[in-house]
Automatic annotation (TrEMBL), chains A, B:
Reaction catalysed by this enzyme: a fatty acyl-[ACP] + phosphate = an acyl phosphate + holo-[ACP]
Primary site of residence: cytoplasm
Gene Ontology CC terms: cytoplasm
Protein name in the entry: Phosphate acyltransferase
Organism lineage string: Bacteria, Pseudomonadati, Planctomycetota, Planctomycetia, Isosphaerales
Length: 351, 351
């Protein structure tokens, strides 16, 4: 298994990125990680790990980096020798099975979408998945921002691909699929949601489809895969992060006010417990969000990824890039009902 | 000022609803609250308050109630003598200035939309506002579910009406308006967001318009009014409630684990502090979400509203129903640029 890693992508690259690659290859004897980036800087980072199996950590030089704040498409055009484009070139040439980057999400998605040959057979538009917490364990939300003009067949495909991700990576057996909507009946929502519900009900996924999931229901975890269009998913993901940050900052203030009044030992325990709780929402464990629908695999990590997040992302990329996983997705997509043949439910009432 | 109150709407109606009405009229000498509902039951509740100024608490009988779980439009058709329809009939007849209900949101919105004569002049589709917390104080989000097919001119109108609400009810001077989107540049997002941004930039609101607001930015509070289409807003609102509930349930478990290890007094203080924090997210203070764009005013309260929430909702309804507020909205809407005359920015890149 060969995965290409954008060594220059991430807020603190290349340090923790290279470190994550070293840990990943040390942990998986069959794994090669191709490091793309500034040769001298990557070499210098690798030199920190004299025991690293260098034969499985080849470097491909790329002189430039797409900045996190640059306009993605513009940056990709101007900086021809950037690490993201070089990494995708290896994917397109079939030299690697998967791609991982903690760099610009926009540049990663734009690079993927530039070339439909990189899509899995049958996929119309790839979608990004993100993990939300729930009372029953992690929930996969697709799409969180790759596709701003989703069609019903796209959301169906996200359900299929999100299920495979939930099974293979999160270990959920036969995950239930829900459709993000504003109410519980099929008639609720928009033309997109009505037609999507009809597709799920008509096809082989009908047994897994639990119908509409409202915003609040995500956290119940009855559906372990929730599909939505990219605009809604992106707002939901970022608002969720904002809400958690906000709440913890309020909690911190509250505790700062309380701590002088309670014994030091008790205070220390509470602070440690709150820190632990916050850490649980930081999702290092799954190492980033996959762009689902790519031949092989593509994982887009958070900019702040540390070595552990990168190591986990490489592990996830390896699992998703196997022929077994890709073939299962292709088979499930082939079995999808055709949107022309399925009548959507009648239009419903306003919420 | 005369406000009609659906005495039968709400999880615990009519008890706390009638109590809230009594408190409201006792607090505001110029206020009359028309109670609509089962005459005998409302009378029985009123009898608990011998000091209540009964002349300012007239009752209008309605034999039926729309259940919270009923399909709104179907229920409104079947139950002709329901308290929501009877309340709207008083609005339509001009007998009251505003309407308040803690009953079915769907039935309240559907009743309002049935009759475009109830819309303020110039309003195409009313929108529901909800309050989110932020580091700079409450933020108004419009629309959270009244309009599933928003046009750019609708989002512009929500910005205008949300501003008036933020000024009059939240006391924010010249509130900044943001557009919910997936990135910071105007080119981001969908045709709807691009055209909406162009409208704000072209019209008299341009000085207040801060451009795109991402999900995370809501909590910064730089924009005190954030506009979006109803589908996105509804998902955002419910997901936000779900996230807060989820986080507090995790916190509760964490504290239950810790409490045996810390002194009882310290534990009590912490529990009280967390309860206080949670209560801050329950929005009783503003008494519910206004349906903006209605002649007079319309406040839709949470089903779990207590007397305090109803009292506050009646106060908000009174403030919003004044001619001064309505005239300001009408004037600001008249000054809106016409969508045909404004070119949207070019289509941008994928997120």
């Amino acid at each position: 298994m060969r995965i290409v890693l954008d060594a220059m992508g991430g807020d603190h690259a290349p340090g923790p990125i290279v470190e994550g690659a070293v840990e990943a290859v040390q942990g998986e004897p069959g794994l090669t990680v191709v490091l793309v980036g500034d040769q001298a800087r990557v070499e210098a980072e690798l030199a920190r790990f004299p025991d690293a199996p260098r034969a499985r950590l080849p470097i491909v030089h790329a002189a430039e980096v797409v900045g996190m704040d640059e306009k993605p498409v513009e940056a990709l055009r101007k900086k021809r020798d950037n690490s993201i484009s070089r990494s995708w070139a290896l994917m397109a040439a079939g030299e690697v099975n998967g791609i991982v980057s903690a760099g610009s999400t926009g540049a990663m998605v734009a690079s993927a979408l530039f070339n439909a040959k990189m899509f899995l057979p049958g996929v119309r538009r790839p979608g990004i998945a993100a993990i939300f917490p729930s009372h029953q364990g992690p929930v996969v939300i697709v799409d969180v921002g790759a596709n701003m003009n989703a069609r019903p067949e796209d959301l169906y495909q996200y359900g299929v691909m999100g299920s495979v991700y939930a099974e293979q990576i999160l270990g959920v057996d036969q995950p239930k699929i829900g459709l993000l909507n504003v109410g519980s009946e099929d008639a609720k929502g928009t033309d997109l949601t009505r037609s999507t519900a009809a597709l799920f009900r008509a096809g082989p996924m009908h047994g897994r489809f639990v119908g509409n999931v409202e915003g609040r229901d995500i956290y119940d975890g009855n559906a372990r895969v929730v599909v939505c269009e990219g605009f809604v998913g992106n707002v939901l993901l970022k608002a969720g992060e904002g809400a958690v940050e906000f709440l913890f900052s309020e909690l911190k203030q509250e505790m700062a006010r309380l701590l002088p009044e309670i014994p030091e030992e008790a205070g220390g325990k509470i602070i440690a417990s709150l820190r632990g709780l916050k850490r649980r929402y930081e999702y290092h464990e799954y190492g980033g969000g996959p762009l689902l629908g790519i031949r092989g695999s593509c994982i887009i990590c958070h900019g702040s990824s540390d070595a552990r997040a990168i190591k986990n992302a490489l592990r996830v990329a390896s699992t998703l890039a196997t022929d077994r996983v890709n073939d299962q997705i292709i088979r499930d997509l082939e079995a999808a009902p055709r949107v022309e043949e399925v009548a959507p439910p009648p239009k419903g009432e306003a919420e």
